Amino acid sequence: xxxxxxxxxxxxxxxxxxxxxxxxxxxxxxxxxxxxxxxxxxxxxxxxxxxxxxxxxxxxxxxxxxxxxxxxxxxxxxxxxxxxxxxxxxxxxxxxxxxxxxxxxxxxxxxxxxxxxxxxxxxxxxxxxxxxxxxxxxxxxxxxxxxxxxxxxxxxxxxxxxxxxxxxxxxxxxxxxxxxxxxxxxxxxxxx
Length: 192
Hints:
By secondary structure, the chain is mostly helical. The chain folds into two domains: 15-60, Arc Repressor Mutant, subunit A; 74-189, Tetracycline Repressor, domain 2, CATH 1.10.357.10. The protein has eight helices and no strands. The chain starts with 14 loop residues before the first helix and ends with a helix. Helix content is 74%, strand content 0%. It has helices spanning 15-35, 41-48, 52-58, 62-87, 90-116, 123-146, 156-169, 175-189.
C-alpha cells in the first residue's frame, strides 16, 4: 500500500498556545516600549511567565518578535476599519479611524528605536504594513465618497501623511491632541 504524499492540513493552534502567543505579543510590546532597542528576549519570557523555549518556538529571533508586534498593531488598524465601517456612518467611520491612526502613530514612535535596530532595518516590515493601512484608509474613503460626504479627488493617504507630519513636527507631548483637532479640519476641507 502506497503512503499518501499529500501535505497534512495545518492544525489550528491549541487555545493555550494562542493565549501564550497573545500574551507574549502584549508583554513584548510593553517591554519594547519601555526599553526600546535594549529589550531582551529573556525579560520578555520572564514577564510573560513562559520558558525561553516557548518564546523561541513562537519567535525564532528578537527581530521576528518585534516585527510581529508591529504588524499586530497595524492589523488592529485594519480590524478597526471593519468594525467602524459596520457601526458608523461613512464619514464618522473615517473620522474615528483617523483617531485610531493617531494612537497607532504614538505607539510606533515609542517602539521606533527598537524597529530601527532590527537587522537590515525596518523597511521590509514597513512595506508589508503600509499596504494594510492603505487598504483600510481607501475602504473608508470609498464609503464616504459614495455617501456624498467626501470628495473623490482627496487621497486618503494624504490625510494620513498630514497627521503623521504633525507627529514629527509637533512637540513630543502635545502632538496627539493637535492631531485630533486636525482630523476635523482635514475632513471639513475634504467635503464636497
